[in-house]
Amino acid sequence: MSCRQWLSSALRGLAKQQPHSQPQTRLFSTTLQSRSSSPSSPSSPLNPSSPAPSASRSAFPSRLTNPTTTPTKSANDALFGIMRESRDRGPALTDAERRNVIKPNFAETIQSTRASATTDAFVRQMPRRWRTGDVYAPRDLSPVEMRKWRRPSAPKTDVVDMLGFSPVDNYRNPSLISEFMTDFGRIKHSKFTGLRPVNQRKIAKAIRRAIGLGLHPSVHRHPEILYRNARKTLGVQYRPDQEKGNSGPKY
Amino acid sequence: MVARSVSPGGALLRASRMFSLPAPIPGPPTQDTTSSSFNSTTATSAYPTHQVITTLSSSRKRGDWGLKRPLPLRSTTKSSNPMIRVKAIDTIEQITDFTSAADHGLTLRKFQELRVPVVVRKSSSDVSYKVSDYAQRSVFDSEIDTTDIAPKDRAQYIDQRWKFTGPWLAGMTEGDFKEYLSKHVRPRRTAFRAFLKQKLAEEMNGAAQLKAMDEGELDVKQTPVRARDITEDQLTDYLRKLRSHQHHLYAMVGTFLDLAPLKPPEIAIAKIQSRETFKVSENPYAQNGPPSTHPSAGITYLRTKSYMDNHPLYGPQKEHQPVQARVVKPRRNTPVTPASIGVAGIIASTRLGDSVLNRKSVGGALDHINPDVEGGSKLWVQVKQARVDSNGKIILSVDSAPMGHGGAEAELIAKELLGEGEGIFGQQREQNIEVLPENREQMRRQYAAPSAPMTVNKLNLNI
Hints:
Chain A is mostly helical and 251 residues long. Chain A has helices spanning 3-17, 21-27, 30-37, 53-57, 59-65, 75-89, 95-124, 143-148, 159-163, 174-179, 190-193, 197-212, 223-234, 240-245, and one strand at 152-153. In chain A, helix 1 crosses helix 6. Chain A starts with a helix and ends in a 6-residue tail after the last helix. By secondary structure, chain B is an alpha+beta fold. Chain B is extended and about 95 Å long. Chain B: One of its GO terms (biological process) is mitochondrial translational initiation.
């Protein structure tokens, strides 16, 4: 514990008491003092058990002698509290003592970090995403087989036929368009898209139309897609209610 | 005309393995529909598509697998699990195309060792949100395993069937649906009109009967309406009426095309039911689609798990014997991926709830790969049930081995059977049991036949 931390904690304690400071200051106000000194009310109505104001004003010696008094009432009290706390706590730990405190935790952390790193390294070698119901033989866990799951392959089925949509009608759909474009804005070859020639031509037409109308950039991905990908990789939660107010990228 | 008798050569050919090998079934549907998919063409598929064949060891030594030509000895005699699948009996290169089928063959054996029945969720009409509320029943339950139904009774037994000639619409993609409409539905328009006429005639007769009964007559005086008596105008009116009653129309179409029943999600059902009369299907396959084969997929014929395990020394056991599950992939936090657990060579689904497989227990085999553990990390789990989904995948539900009194005991016994760990109740297993070589006299005494006369057996032996 450094001195600065004690200071800051004390100041925090002060800040906490700020809202309640009003009645307390009034306790020491001249009006209250006069009221308490009046014969009609011998003790203060707010704090009947409190000592006389004159005694609480000279609080420094009383706090030293009696540590279980009322909480700090002023900046001076707070500073005094720091002194008292440090005195009660005693001197800081020596280096040797500190090492002893840290040692067991440190060893545990090192161990778990090492296990985690080993696991990560192995998991990186296992790119296959297992689904419930998948059948595996020992061969499927081998490095040769696992390496095959790292390489993307062209889809075997024609997506356009399967989903039964018209590509040309979807020229305003940037996520569809960018699925069939490379990072540099070129139209993907049918051996990568897996489309039959008729649908490949239709998709190509939709892409050319989107670019020709200025709806889609011709040299890179659509900013909306970039924003979406960034959000995905950064792990920011997608929240549509926030999206309305702050409409993503400014361009 | 006398039927032609099959020649001896022909009979031999027909009985041969060459002809008895069934044609391969279509493989599991691929799930890679995105533009870039990650898969392996050589990975073990979710279910076998080819028949697995094996042969006797004496025949195997000669390369005789009952096929057209002997198989090479070098690649077939070394395996301890002689199982092959034949892709082609003969090819243009004059070879028999075969590979090892030990993957699926052994998976089946391991699955059958689990001794779990294939079950299906019992459909309940009242909405329930607890998993435990859904009773499971065997797929061989005669109430839901009926195939021999006359075509005219199909609609009546819709909730007891698993096989339908029509598709399950909820499982179709838009493109497939459009193709189905154009290829299979549109050509049957005239047949559907005839079907509707029949239905209309039945309805009219029913209404007339009801009216007659209301008027206090025992029978209808008029002759019953026949389907051919219905005019086109009447049919058009009926069609218009049907269009405003969508559920009724769907029931008609479903009956005509023999569509697999649909069950909307439970939240949707509550909405629909409040609006109009809607009969929710009771078919257990309505929600997730009917199976492509028999719902058991032929992997087991057990009907129940309500049997008691017996141990030769410890007697009847409270719990079923737990099994070891492989941690195929440990769970990770970044990105959050659950652990993949394999039981009997099948990736299992882990149940929800507080268990070893759940998030609450951190650390250990489920979270870390320890390369020092030979053969990989394993867990003891209890297999709860097996199910075959509409894609033909085996879904095994596993739970952590029960930690109660019986559970811990079951695990100890299972370990002991594997030769691991110490004996149950802390007793040390006797390490060096002296095995004396038995002499012939002892063996004869031990396995001697009873002294009673065994005429039948002797007779049989003599024959």
